[in-house]
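Recall that a protein's primary structure is simply its ordered list of amino acids. Everything else, from secondary elements to tertiary packing, is in principle encoded there. The following example makes that idea concrete.
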Amino acid sequence: MFQTASKIITFEEFLDWYPDGYGRYELYDGAIVEMQPTGTHEQVSGFTASKLAIEIDRLSMDCFIPRQAFIKLSDSNKSGYIPDVIVLNQTGLELEPMWKKRSTITKGETVRLIIEVVSTNWQDDYLTKLRDYEALQIPEYWIIDYLGLGGRRYIGFPKQPTLTIYRLVDGEYEVQQFRGSDRLISIAFPQLNLTTEQIFNSANLGI
C-alpha cells in the first residue's frame, strides 16, 4: 500500500472523494492510503468469502457478504477501513445511519465477522485494525496470514502460515490460532467445515 495524499481529511470528506469504480482506499488518521492487493491475496479472500456464502445459503442465515463496505471507527472521524471480507447481519442495517447512502457500518453489533488477509503491511492487521475492531466490539475477527508474514510475537517462530481468530468475550478479544489441517472453530459460523490448509492452498502456493 502507499499513502496518496498528505492533507488530513475527515471520514466524510474521504467518502466524498472516493473514486467510483476503480481503486481501493482506506483512511488512516486522516491520510488516504491506496491498497494494492496481490493476485494471491485476492484468491485467498475470494475463496474464503465463497465458502462463507455457501454456508449462509445452506443454513438460510440472516446475514450477507457485501461486495464492499466501509467500517467507521466509533471514536474517530479520521479513520475508516474496507475489510477484505465482511459479513453483516441483515437486521442490524436498520439502525445504521450511514448504510443506505454511504455503505458504511458504524456499530459493531451489525457485523457478524470481519476477515483481513495479510499483505506486507501486516502491522495494520495485527496492531491497528485489531485494536480498532475490538474497540468497536466486532464479535469475531479473522487474520489470514497465508504467507506467515506477521511478527514473531503474533505467529511464533519459526514463522509459518497461520490463521488467527479473535472472539469477543466480555468486551475483550480472546485468541485462537489454526495451522496445517486444523479445522476452524468459529462462533459466527459454528457448522463451518473448513481447514486452514484449504484456505492457504487456495493461493496455489502448495503450502
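The mean pLDDT is 93. The first helix runs from residue 11 to 17.
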